[in-house]
Amino acid sequence: MGAYRLLKLPGNMTEEERNLSKAVMSYWATFAWNG
Length: 35
Known about the structure:
Structural class: mainly alpha
Strand content: under 5%
Radius of gyration: 11 Å
Distance between the termini: 20 Å
Number of strands: 0
Largest sheet: none
Order of helices and strands: HH
C-alpha cells in the first residue's frame, strides 16, 4: 500500500502492530473511496 510507505512509523512496532495499522488504513481508505 503506497500510503503506508509514506508514513513515518516508529521502528519499534511489532509485526502485529504493523498488520493492525495496515488493516485500519485499508478500512478507512475503502470507506473514503466508497462512502
